[in-house]
Amino acid sequence: MKIYTTLASAILLSTLTFTQASAQDGLEIFNDTVKVNRGDQFHIFLKSFSQPIKDYLANAKRIAVDFETTTPNTITVGGAWFQPSAEGFGKVKMVVYQESPYIKDYPDWTQKLDSLEFTVNVLPKRTPAALPYINKVWGMSKADAIADMQNHYELYSDTYYAMNPSLTQEERQLFDWFLNPDFDYPLLALGWNEDGQLYSSNIILADRARLGFNSESEVSGYLEDDGFELLGYDETGLFVAYRESDHTQASAGNITLQGQYFPYINFQYSPKSPLAVDRTTLTQPNARISRNGSTVTIEAGEDADQLVRIFTANGKLIADGKLHNGTNTFTVTVKGPVIVRVGKHAGVKIM
Length: 351
Description:
Elements: H1 9-12, E1 33-37, H2 51-57, E2 63-69, E3 75-77, E4 82-84, E5 88-99, E6 107-123, H3 142-150, E7 154-155, H4 157-163, H5 169-172, E8 175-179, E9 187-192, E10 198-204, H6 218-225, E11 229-233, E12 239-243, E13 248-257, E14 260-269, E15 288-292, E16 295-299, E17 307-312, E18 317-322, E19 327-331, E20 338-342, E21 348-350
Parallel strand pairs: 1-6
Antiparallel strand pairs: 2-5, 3-4, 5-6, 7-8, 8-9, 9-10, 10-14, 11-12, 12-13, 13-14, 15-16, 16-19, 17-18, 17-20, 20-21
């Protein structure tokens, strides 16, 4: 049985491009009311798009979003995220803009496309939400694994790839997507090797706080209950865990999706346990870092004139240079995750 041991995450974590992504002609989320935890930062996954957004995205790569609220005593907004600050009910508006021609994922405030209002039910801090089911039977055939997932979820691959037309047919064979009608965990993806066998399973989250930062968390607790050993934390402060019984590695990261940054959990086949990683107390970079395919883009900000180094996940240096003011681009040829280290800041894992 041939199983890849590296995540082909150029697909999983690519910045989405939307065209005729949905059969519906309206801006839609899962429910008119979403339940969220006090104190956590949230993003909202859009399951369908209005015609003005589709028309715009037919000739553009990305949308940008901004959140507004009429209940500031309950909800704090911060651009592309909102944060409940008091228990109870609040009102939030998600506004969709064209992307700025100058800054990636930033709104062009003069070009509003549409908006959506919804109610937020703020629950007590640390209210748990169980992880959704996802198949982790490594080596299972594509047909059998998809059939298994369809017992729980809607197959979403056609819609996902309609959203992402720049991907080649070869790349589209690497992942299948599933829509989960759950605000906390809206998307799931299975990854295949060249023989059509399952080797990677992925869960997208709305709430990064469930992952924790340089500490045990709600998610790492679920993993330990499921037989995983928590090994430590990577350079971004996110957990790395391993389950010896089925050779499964679990880790986490962030993706750019619909103009927002969503956290994700990755499970993948790994015949050997990864080395334990150390906790890090390094500061996060001020620079804004993103990736689209083979291009890593860094908006220098206050980190201008700092040295930047880009490594593969196993520590191989693949690019370096010095940041100048404004936008900097670097080319990487690997498909898996890379670590970007700016100056003496902590490394940032991107896909």
